[in-house]
Amino acid sequence: MRLAFLASVLLALPVLGFGQKRDGNYQAQNGTKAPWTVNSAHALVWGNAPYLPVGLAIDGSLDQLEAAKAAGVRDLLVDIPANGMSWDRVFKALNDSGMRFGIRLDSLAPMAKGFIVEPQSYRVSGVIGPRELDLEMPGAKSALVVTAVRRDGSIQSSVRVPVTNGRMKYLVKPLSELEHVVLIYPESISLEQVDYWEELDAHRDELLASLSRRPPGAGLRFLVNPLGKTMTLPGRDVHFVPSSPTFRKELRGALERKYKSIETAQRVWSMSYSGIESWDVLSRLVPLWYGSRGVGQLWDPETNKLYIVDQRKSTAWEDIAEVITSSGARRFQRLVSAIRSVADVPVIQEWQGWAAPYETPFPSVDGIGMRSVGVKPNEIIDSACRATSSISRWSTRGLLLATDIQLGGTAESEKQGLAVIDDLFQMGAKGAFVKTQSPTLMKLLAQESTKRAADPASAELKTEAVFYPENANNPATAQRLPGSRWWLPTPSDGNRLDLGSLFKGYRIKIGGLDQYALWAVRPARYRIRTNEGKNLRFQTLDGSDPKPVVGKGYVDVDFSDVPTVIIGATELPVPEICYIETITQFDILLREAELKSRDIIEERIFFKDGVQAFDRQPGSAFPLLRQMVQKVSVKMGPYTWVEAESAKEHNWSDIARIAGCSGEGSLVLRTPLGPPATGYVANYPLMVRSGSDQEVWIAAKIPVERRADVVVIVGGQPLRITSEPIGLYGNGFGWYKLGTTRLAGGQSSMRVEIAASNNQEIALDVILLTPRPFKPDATRVPDAYDYPQIQIPTKPKGKGKG
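The structure corresponding to this sequence follows.
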């Protein structure tokens, strides 16, 4: 009966393109019907009336339900498992109490089995002799262990090792005294990749049977997290290869359609002659590299044979990722459609990173669940703004509810509950659910719900969004703008601009074209140097008129301290005042370098080339000029600025390219393996230019739980993190002041140590020692000298250069 029912459900599913309908007609088991729709303002309209819930998130216990009822709360978000356990009891109590509710699946989502390819994380370096490995690998079945010479990456051995009771034991026996690296590729269950193949079918069948046999009743309004509970959702980067037979079949079909012949496929994958004659073999191969780490080999888990490839040219990862992404999108949509065929209510997914289920113009879910942490306005905005960003970029309507509001649990934070909800509604939420046991807050939530219901016009209030790339956090920041608009981060390509001290700005790619946003530290009318003046459009975020006047090689524009977006430029439009400031700064640096006999010949030549090219191509020449000022400032300043990725000696995971970081690079540590006896270490030589007291700073992304693990040893003095980061920038980076040290001028050393291992990532961007007080400004290098203040003209004069 169960299989027959499920088959009939799946056969009856409507044929929908990517982009689910945002309308429905929910029918309860008692025959009650309720038409619903999601409007363009992200609100649910139920039975022709706006539904703007303010209520509680509960775990499904009858005690919590009774407490909510006693406080007058009518709207609940109830956590329940997908298997239907306790559904009858919970739904009867909810409907008998006249509650309106959503259900959130809190059972674990089906996670994929396969092979973890993270050579930057699963590695043991510094092996120069026999070593017994005894590593914890919970959930793993086996692992491929590859021993390679560190110098050239040549493989000395590869062996499949069993994992017993969560532990892998293996004796490494290097064949020479050269330093070796041991790379480990576990066969395990992924913590990130949902099983969109066999296990998803079982999850879907179980959930549909529960919804059919234990119908929720007339009070149901929406369903949250159709997959169940996940630690994270898959995004753009794939570093896991599923072993599912269905996945392999789909990959085989995709490869056949794309390449037509096995010979062509192997050539594009940059494989040397392999003798492979079967699409089945090709579709089960696992790349053994990821980014710059790993070895240029493809592994066949069935035979344990390795095939040589040129990892720099191979498209193997691209093809695997494309099938995982397309398969996931297709099956996720089918799951949502199947749920709505049984219980036709909106299906929403809680925001968990820039993830595939909702990071598309036409998502298969009907909405997004917003997460909010803290009670301070900046905490609320920072934690919740990305959900608003995602749904604001949909090309279809979507429901936005605050489903996970974490106030902090203290009596003081509970008092701020209504203020938090009001902030979330201003950010576009059209419903909010708080987890609390405070009777006082529960009563306030009930009153707030009545207040919202009495104001149906608020369901039509739209949140207009202006986007900036997340890499450009600082100077850009999520905030409310004039006219009920919000400035929001996106994962779009782009970055902050180095314009000097007088202007801030960023570049963002929208629709395949670059846009530039600039704003002045001191509002005035400025001349913009560009050869594209007639093609440019200027839009201010505060709605003011920038009054552009185009001349030959320039545009005169009014700039305030609110960003002006410049559309139509193919290269950076340069404020002339920034060019003047850059010339002035380099002249001072050049004079000081000559007085102190410092070698800046290379920078001087490049700077001269940039000046000569500026009139012809200001947008291309100016970044070079700023780069030379930064480089010479590091050479001439009294401080010591060290790019963390410059470490010559380290055993961290990888040097990662991260836009938004200084030099767009960072030293990264992320590994579940136990630390070596020496811990994870990065060593740096220091050339200290001052014998006075030095403030020690690091710019890094460090999870709160891992800050105690970080030690910076400067000249033998250990320094630790004792405060919160300031000057936050990019995707989670910030500056930590570690303390003060005194070093004699000249050569010294510094060492960054991490004593413990953890799968949470630490990324180190910059280390700074400075005898002057330091005020972080994203990744901007401190000024080497106190430069004279540049005079801001009251009105640009003349034509052309000005």
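Residues 1-19 have pLDDT under 50 and may be disordered.
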